[in-house]
Amino acid sequence: MKLFNTRTKQVDEFKPLDDSNVVRIYSCGPTVYNHAHIGNLSAYIVADMLRRSVQLAGYETRHVMNFTDVDDKTIRDSARNYPDLDPAEALTKLTRHYETIFLCEMQEIGNDTESLTFVRATDSIEAMKTLITNLVNQGVAYIADDGVYFSISKYQESRRYGQLSHVELAADTKSRVNNDEYDKDSAQDFALWKTQKPGEPAWSFTIDDVDLTGRPGWHIECSVMSVGELGQPFDIHTGGIDLIFPHHENEIAQSTAGDQPELYANFFVHNEHLLVDGIKMAKSKRNFYTLVDVKEQHFDPLDFRMLILQSHYQSASNFSWDNLTAAQNRRRNWRNKAELRWQIPDSSDDGQVEIVNNLLDQAKAALLDNLDTPNALKYIDEAFDQLSYDNLSHFALDNIINFIDDCLGLAIRIATPNISETDRNDIQIRFEAKTNKDFERADQIRQSLSSNGILLNDLSDHTIWNRQ
Ligand SMILES: [Zn+2]
């Protein structure tokens, strides 16, 4: 299996670090203060495709994702939404609510949440305190008036800061940043821990008798939760390219400082930004969508998954309602082919099975070649093209459906059950009415089925149905 590794800046052959056959993956998860926007969701689809592809390559996986349930944004919005509650209660109330919504939306877009282990930042505070204390004891972190900071200059004495992003170091080596999501082009000392401000939730913490009651910074959360669950170094770290700096750079620094191992994660896999109508998504540009908007426009969340899979993860997917309609059509075509299993007798054509299996092998090879989903989808189209009303191997069709469901997460089988016996009888009655030239009756039945989303296509000796 090959993957583009941001750490080495090239496509590398992927092998697990140890010989246990288990691949350990960590994906930066959601900050649970609101609905995830579709750009975030696209990153989780890529992470899910990565895990499926690693499994397709023959490995087992241990895949961990965090919930950031304490940070600047969760604290800000919990205070705003629940001003009368105790800050800690307000934080729990807000973040648990959005955790539930997130899990639901993950399933709707075809991500397998059963294969993920979720960890909450607020359940990992003790381990964060331990790491921060160690960093202070080793001189790589220091206590300031508003928290504990990571010292980049001290780190630089034995390690290199900027391994992923090649970011410049700040000219003023004493500059500090307290905000979690700073977007500067130079590295500064960043907060590992922030002392309590009025109205904020806080955890007690002391180092050398200094009272540091407060809460963790964002970056320390991921260092602690990834290594706590997976050990260090682990195999693959995923996230959107916006996380390379400062988030992932800071994770590496925190986890490799002092006497810790030199390597944090072996592979870093980053997906490109999702564009909306060709431009970057931003609240100010009114092109900021969530899955709620997608569903309100009567699209299936899996149409959105199809749209994401139609682009390579290293190039920007472009979300537009037209592109979503195109993805919906492709998925509908696939579903309609899958529905033939209820309607066309099995041709038991071994030749067809061989051609289809060959195309599925090529789809698999595409996925293992740096997650080339657009090419994998093209081979699936070609595999479906082998099937016709006159020649349909049920075994070949079953193989295609299994590949789509297991390797692409597009859930075709469950979306294509047989129609009801009443509907099947109606189709037969209509066919006979038409044969007897009772066109009024035939049209009536067609319209009634159509209003239930079942469309008919007349062949010479029978009628094929398709769901819309
Ligand atoms: Zn993270």
Question: What can be said about this structure in brief?
Answer:
This protein is of the alpha/beta class and 468 residues long.
How would you describe this structure in keywords?
alpha/beta, 468 residues, binds zinc ion, Isoleucyl-tRNA Synthetase, Domain 1, five-stranded mixed sheet, single chain, elongated, five-stranded parallel sheet
Can you tell me about this structure?
With 468 residues, this protein is of the alpha/beta class. The chain folds into 3 domains: 2-271, 3-Layer(aba) Sandwich (Rossmann fold), CATH 3.40.50.620; 276-415, Orthogonal Bundle (Isoleucyl-tRNA Synthetase, Domain 1); 421-467, no CATH class. It is built from 16 helices and 21 strands. A 5-stranded parallel β-sheet has the order 5-4-3-15-16, sandwiched between helices. Strands 6, 7, 9, 11 and 14 form a 5-stranded mixed β-sheet that branches. Strands 18-17-19 form a 3-stranded mixed β-sheet. Helix 9 packs across helix 10 (321-338), helix 11 runs antiparallel to helix 12 (373-385) and helix 11 (350-368) packs parallel to helix 13 (394-408). The longest helix is centred in the N-terminal third of the chain and has 22 residues, at 87-108. The chain is elongated and about 95 Å long. It starts with a strand and ends with a strand. The model has no long low-confidence stretch (mean pLDDT 95). The structure holds zinc ion (ZN).
